[in-house]
Amino acid sequence: MAGPVNRRERARADTLRDIRGAARRVLVEHGVEGLALRAIAREVGLTPPALYRYFASREELVERVVADLYDELCDRLEEARDAVAPPRPGVQLMTAARTFRRWAIDHPAEFGLLFGNAADGVVPEKADDGPAAAAGRRFGGVFAALMAAVYLQQPFPVPADGDLDERYRDQLRAWCAKLPVELPLGVMAVFLSSWVRLYGLVCMEVFGHLRFALDDAASLFEAEMHDVAVRLGIEADLVHPEE
Length: 243
Known about the structure:
By secondary structure, this protein is mainly alpha-helical.
């Protein structure tokens, strides 16, 4: 009895993988608006009604693809982080930042699904227990854990709680409660500021908003990461990617 059950489970897993792969290709080529379940079903050899045995709705399928993309990105970040030897947190943080930029440049459509507004109104915003939200938290945890490791190894200057605006402080406290790593609020403020620089620059590059000035933003990226490293006291860990 176990054999047929296992075969059915494997066949279902294979079909789910094929459906998600087909949906990713359509999303990359045509965007969320071009995602038609009928076209996905046809590509994987199913009838449209049969597709609903695997995904209850178009929204559920998009959310699953978004989760897959987050997981793919996290796998890439963690692989690059773990390849650093010796595993100095500062080098790992800078390596993860460069890996994030490289993935974004190589996958602009996928980056738009995760970090742009391409999936707005499709992936449920309140689905905090859904696969996309869980995968997003995994992504945030990669950088939060590295920032914590940098701070714990060699604390860098951070603002005191009393120096932060009250409303800002309350929001940081609420955000900190959601992260897998507990850090002082001042560290969270520095973390957020550093993330805005990294994320904002990558977004501008991927979405073409730096073309008015730069054809290649690599040098600007490295300059910004240098400033972040100085703020975190890890200039010695700012190893050039070619070194």
